[in-house]
Design brief:
The complex is a heterodimer of chains A (about 375) and B (about 425). In chain A, about 25% of the residues lie in helices and about 25% in strands. With about 375 residues, chain A is of the alpha+beta class. Chain A folds into two domains: about 190 residues, FAD/NAD(P)-binding domain, CATH 3.50.50; about 160 residues, 2-Layer Sandwich (D-Amino Acid Oxidase, Chain A, domain 2), CATH 3.30.9. In chain A, α1 runs parallel beside α8. The longest helix of chain A has 19 residues. The mean pLDDT of chain A is about 95. Chain B has three domains: about 150 residues, FAD/NAD(P)-binding domain, CATH 3.50.50; about 140 residues, 3-Layer(bba) Sandwich (FAD/NAD(P)-binding domain); about 80 residues, Arc Repressor Mutant, subunit A (Orthogonal Bundle). In chain B, strands 1, 2, 3, 4, 5, 6 and 19 form a seven-stranded mixed beta sheet that branches. The model of chain B has no long low-confidence stretch (mean pLDDT about 95). Classes of the chains: A alpha+beta (about 375), B alpha/beta (about 425). At the A-B interface, α5, β12, α7 and β16 of A face α10, β22 and α12 of B.
Chain lengths: ~375, ~425
């Protein structure tokens, strides 16, 4: 298993439970990449009907199981609230939610007068929203660490330099601490997953910032709250900066403010102008935040593929190599169903979700 | 207006630099978070005249950005300059022990600031503990304020290196002798190889456990001392946040500079404690030297003086280290991070989950994620995970309100 983020840890958990012996290799240790830079979102609300929504719904159910079987990662089935600023946006949001409902998502329209029943501190003048009770949150670093620990898999902290290949078969990996032989290799290397020369994939980083406020005794945000613009940004192909207010609290009492999207390679430097935009959008939704302090900010990189679908399944060039990567900003949410799919493919079990849309060979 | 030089920090280094630069005809802005100049060291002292310096007090600088060949220094407003001098000093280094979160436990620097800055007595009966020569002036300041100082406890043992260093810098030797005499007159015992290993009390400090320490700080021979206040200081940590934001090279806990006080980033100078804790005299010399980075070759006299004071500082650093034996003072329930209330056992749980470096421990157990952003617990968390403390990257050197942050959403300045 190359990578000890949420995807690698989940795969290790599902594989070991299926009787497979797993060694996880990561140069930074558990949750040191994208997993350590996210909010821990488990969302169905931002997915349009289609294969990713199917994966998200399956994953949502699996997360509930994992909380019972493993736990210890601050599982919060808090639900999501998507709000629309104008009647036009609300119409689009309502239509979008209708499609999702047909796909199995629980989604209920919220009239403007009822918004404050969900979020007492929301701004005036919003046109309405949609409530998504299935949306949830975990503390992602703890989730990866707990699943990895519960798997019993060995974690080796070193860099994977390349795959070991004999003919057209992968037989292991070359690491900074020697060769590791394996019957199968899973590439769950996040933003670096595309860079293995023997089996390249078109996966690149999409940068995002998170602002963290002072801790609150009683945080003013109860659900994951975001504007309808977020959905269009998630699916967007734009190169430039996009921001949309995404706000939620954590069990530690802080409020997390996202979300920005920028394609700037592996650069994680801080851009205060982007942080300022996020602050403006947060105050726009929750005016009560205006005089509260920001104490921290961090940048993370989402590993994305050209069609914004994750890359899951056997490599189309080399045998015994499997990919589990390209989850963009949805890796925490999609990790268990990804792990279930990979485990089925390695052990020969039947799939819960149709795997073909995620096949690595789909790119030209 | 674009200044030739912006100085952040109006302590001994920053004040000197601003004054020298203005005298040489440079346009200078001097910024400090406090309402008065002087910094920690000169706190409460008379305000110097700073002819020709644009003095901006009460400005909490939360970030510095380099754009083109200029620096934008963000506080409540943005100051722009072609050269930046960061002289933001240092803060008290603390290590955890059972009861250190009780009211009545202060940092040594905090106790001194109360007396010198606010003219407030921190308590009636105080124990001063920790390591380093700074404990002496703190004890004397407390005595002068009419506080009963029961004991001064120095965790390290006297070192021949320190004696030799004092012999080479007579002014420091005279200063130390003055403090020692004052303590002796007041019959305050100064004990080396001793430390406070726990503080006790219901709602605030009522007493402390004092232990003798082996050379590597393992405690033995415990006794209790009644007191209502504990002033504790284990040296200082450079406050280099702005320099780390800019990507300046660091070594150990401080930023590295050349003979002109230049950091590794073009146009960024640093002077005083941010370049390694060496005291106010060294800071003054370095503040003057920094200006020579703009106006030409530094005078050999200043370079020699800096070298002498830095050698002395090095002797202090080697004579008064924080030794890992303090970890024997901890119990499973001892708080390591006070902001997030993270205990020793919570850190051990994170380590058990595979966290073997300070960053991963922070991600799993939250030490350093609260208000102080690890300024208090950084040393302890690093050492408890077997790492050397290193400056952390903090995008906000000071907290800032969301409303103030929105002022930086400007398209024109990119």
């Amino acid at each position: 298993m190359v990578g000890a983020g949420i995807v690698g840890a989940s795969c290790a958990y599902f594989l070991t439970r299926a009787g497979v012996r797993v060694t996880v290799v990561d140069r930074g240790g558990v949750a040191s990449g994208t997993t350590g830079a996210g909010e821990g979102n488990i969302l169905v609300s931002d997915k349009e009907p289609g294969p990713e929504l199917d994966l998200a719904l399956r994953s949502n159910a699996l997360w509930r199981d994992l909380d019972e079987q493993c736990g210890g990662f601050e599982w919060e089935p808090k639900g999501g609230l998507v709000v629309a600023e104008t009647p036009e946006v609300l119409d689009a949001l309502t239509a979008f939610a209708g499609g999702q409902r047909a796909g199995g998502v629980a989604a209920a329209r919220v009239a403007p007068g009822d918004l404050r029943d969900f979020e007492p501190h929301l701004a005036d003048g919003l046109a309405g929203g949609v409530h998504y009770p299935q949306d949830a949150q975990v503390q992602p670093m703890l989730a990866a660490a707990r699943l990895l620990r519960a798997s019993g898999a060995r974690l080796v902290r070193t860099a994977v330099e390349r795959f070991l290949v004999t003919g057209d078969r992968v037989t292991g990996v070359r690491t900074g601490e020697g060769d590791l032989r394996a019957d199968a290799v899973v590439n769950a290397a996040g933003t670096w997953a595309g860079g293995f020369a023997q089996a390249p994939l078109p996966i690149r980083p999409r940068k995002g910032f998170i602002l963290v406020t002072q801790p609150f005794a009683d945080p003013p945000v109860r659900h994951k709250v975001y504007t309808a613009a977020y959905v269009t940004n998630v699916a967007s192909d734009a190169e430039g900066l996009e921001t949309s207010g995404v706000i939620e609290s954590t069990r530690a009492g802080t409020v997390l403010i996202g979300a920005s999207r920028q394609r700037v390679g592996h650069d994680t430097s801080i851009d205060y102008r982007v942080l300022a935009k996020l602050a403006r959008q947060a105050i726009g939704l929750f005016p009560v935040l205006a005089d509260r302090q920001v104490i921290r900010a961090y940048a993370g990189l989402r590993p994305y593929s050209p069609d914004h679908l994750p890359v899951i399944g056997p490599d189309h060039r080399l045998e015994n190599l499997f990919h589990a990567c390209g989850h963009e900003g949805a890796g925490i949410g999609l990790a268990p169903a990804t792990a279930e799919m990979i485990t089925a493919q390695i052990t020969g079990a039947g799939p819960s979700v149709e795997p073909s849309p995620f096949a690595p060979g789909r790119f030209p | 207006m674009i200044y030739d030089l912006a100085v952040v920090g109006a302590g001994p280094a920053g004040l000197t630099a601003a004054r020298v630069a203005a005298r040489r005809g440079l346009s200078v802005a001097l910024l400090d978070a406090y309402a008065k100049t002087g910094g920690q060291f000169l706190r409460g002292a008379a305000q110097p005249r700073l002819t020709g310096v644009d003095v901006r007090l009460g400005r909490r600088v939360w970030a510095v950005e380099k754009s083109q060949e200029r620096f934008e220094i963000h506080a409540s407003e943005t100051t722009t300059a072609t050269t930046l001098l960061v002289a933001t000093g240092a803060h008290d280094r603390v290590i955890p022990f059972p009861g250190w979160d009780l009211p009545g436990v202060l940092t040594a620097g905090g106790a001194q600031a109360l007396v010198k800055g606010e003219r407030v007595k921190p308590g009636e009966e105080v124990v001063v503990a920790g390591t380093g020569p700074f404990l002496l002036p703190v004890a004397v300041t407390l005595l002068d304020a009419g506080v009963r100082v029961k004991e001064v406890l120095e965790a390290n043992r006297p070192s021949p290196r320190m004696a030799a260093a004092l012999a080479r810098v007579p002014s420091k030797a005279a200063e130390a002798l003055g403090y020692a005499r004052r303590l002796a007159e007041a019959r305050v015992p100064y004990r080396t190889g001793h430390a406070v290993v726990a503080a006790h009390g219901e709602d605030s400090v009522e007493g402390v456990t004092v232990a003798k320490l082996t050379r590597d700080w393992k405690p033995y021979a415990w006794r209790t001392v009644d007191c209502d206040t504990l002033a504790v200081g284990y040296g200082f940590t450079p406050q280099a946040d702005l320099l780390v934001q800019l990507g300046c090279r660091t070594e150990g806990d401080h930023v590295t500079v050349d003979d002109h006080q230049r950091t590794s980033v073009d146009g960024v100078l640093a002077a005083g404690e941010v370049t390694g804790v060496a005291g106010a005299a060294a800071a003054v010399v370095e503040g003057a030297l920094a200006v020579h980075a703009l106006i030409g070759a530094p005078p050999p006299r200043l370079l020699a003086e800096r070298a002498r004071l830095r050698r002395f500082a090095r002797a202090l650093e080697l004579s008064y280290p924080v030794r890992d034996g303090w970890q024997h003072w901890l119990t499973p329930g001892t708080l390591v991070c006070r902001c997030e209330e993270v205990t020793v056992s919570a850190l051990e749980e994170a380590r058990d989950l595979g966290a073997d470096d300070p960053r991963t421990v922070k991600l799993l157990a939250r030490p350093g994620m609260g208000w102080c952003q690890g300024r208090m617990c950084g040393h302890a968390v690093a050492r408890l995970t077997g790492h050397d403390p290193a400056p952390q990257k903090r995008p906000f050197a000071q907290p800032i309100t969301l409303a103030d942050l929105t002022l930086h959403d400007r398209e024109d300045s990119t």
